[in-house]
Amino acid sequence: MLIEVVKSKIHRVKVTGADLNYIGSITIDEDLMEAANIIRGEKVQIVNNNNGERLETYAIPGTRGSGEITLNGAAARKVAVGDVLILITYAQMDFEIAKTFNPSLVFPNEETNLLT
Fold first, then answer.
1. 75 is in an annotated binding site
2. Which residues are reported to carry the modification Pyruvic acid (Ser) (predicted)?
3. pLDDT digits (tens, 9 = 90+) for 35-81
4. Most-buried pick from 67, 73, 109, 111 (CB within 10 A)?
5. What secondary structure, in 3-state letters, does 67-111 show?
6. Is 16 annotated for ligand binding?
7. Domain spans of the chain?
8. Is residue 58 within 8 Å of 41, Cβ to Cβ?
9. Where are the alpha helices (DSSP H) in 10-50?
10. Catalytic hit among 25, 66, 90, 104
11. What is the pTM of this model?
12. By the 8 A CB rule, do 86 and 6 touch?
């Protein structure tokens, strides 16, 4: 049996931009993506702590070391610059393997979005 479990989480990052005219996705500082084991194009669930919105899109790498978290396209309407987000990815795996799987959890600096 396969189950879906948390694979990666970037906890409490601030939105640095919202670009309605870009063609979809979330731009994430490449350092954060790497630390959380998230790859380009991977589906990401976005939880907005400020307004309760939840949405899904895909990740694209932003400038390394920039702290960038930009929602693009229609998703830009679901956030405001400064909102606090939790970014989550999931993976399907065998039930027994899932029991011992350890997700990549990242807790960046809440003011700068940079790794501490």
1. yes
2. 25
3. 999 999 999 999 999 999 999 999 999 999 999 999 999 999 999 99
4. 67
5. CCEEEEHHHHHHCCCCCEEEEEEEEEEEHHHHCCCCCEEECCCCC
6. no
7. 2-94
8. yes
9. 30-36
10. 25
11. 0.96
12. no
